[in-house]
Amino acid sequence: MLVTFILLPGMEKAIVRPFKRPNALCRLICFPWAGGGTSHFAQWGKLFSSSIEVSVVRLPGRESRAKEPFAKDMTAVINEITSALLEDLQEKPFAFFGHSCGAYISYAVAVHLKEKHGLEPIHLFLSGVYAPHSEAFLLMGKVNEVKDEDILEHVKFLGGTPSEFLKNEDIKKHLIRTIREDVSILQTYS
């Protein structure tokens, strides 16, 4: 299935809204997992009722932003997402959904919006994530010590990545780098 991505004025390339619903009652902003892009969540825009408009965060270094340098820290990510969404979030209620690495980023953006702009989501959905004080979270900080093969095995174990992607050397290398870069962002947020 072909999904057309609509880049909205003022949102530049950081936010994708595949199915624009100006009369929606609420916006759901989705934050993908480490190494993830927009394609999975883009489908949600079609599946939800017309009362919910789905947007997806697209970080630098992937998809149409593949030639851009990866973000170096959580502050840069927070600032870019906030800048892209701020006007939009003042129009109607919104919720965040973050999965895995995206859960941490969505939480950080929610805290920033509340502290700096007095805005907060009506709900913050988090999935597939460890508590920031857990041993598993602390082990993620050692992602640069993990062998490429072990990262790929974990990706295969989790599922969701087409096997033909994992057979392509360029795609594999980019996926591993993207995962490493995304996880390293988490280490810059306290």
TrEMBL record:
<dbReference type="InterPro" id="IPR001031">
    <property type="entry name" value="Thioesterase"/>
</dbReference>
<dbReference type="GO" id="GO:0016297">
    <property type="term" value="F:fatty acyl-[ACP] hydrolase activity"/>
</dbReference>
<dbReference type="InterPro" id="IPR029058">
    <property type="entry name" value="AB_hydrolase_fold"/>
</dbReference>
<comment type="similarity">
    <text>Belongs to the thioesterase family.</text>
</comment>
<feature type="domain" description="Thioesterase">
    <location>
        <begin position="27"/>
        <end position="189"/>
    </location>
</feature>
<dbReference type="GO" id="GO:0032787">
    <property type="term" value="P:monocarboxylic acid metabolic process"/>
</dbReference>
<protein>
    <recommendedName>
        <fullName>oleoyl-[acyl-carrier-protein] hydrolase</fullName>
        <ecNumber>3.1.2.14</ecNumber>
    </recommendedName>
</protein>
<dbReference type="GO" id="GO:0008610">
    <property type="term" value="P:lipid biosynthetic process"/>
</dbReference>
<dbReference type="Pfam" id="PF00975">
    <property type="entry name" value="Thioesterase"/>
</dbReference>
<dbReference type="InterPro" id="IPR012223">
    <property type="entry name" value="TEII"/>
</dbReference>
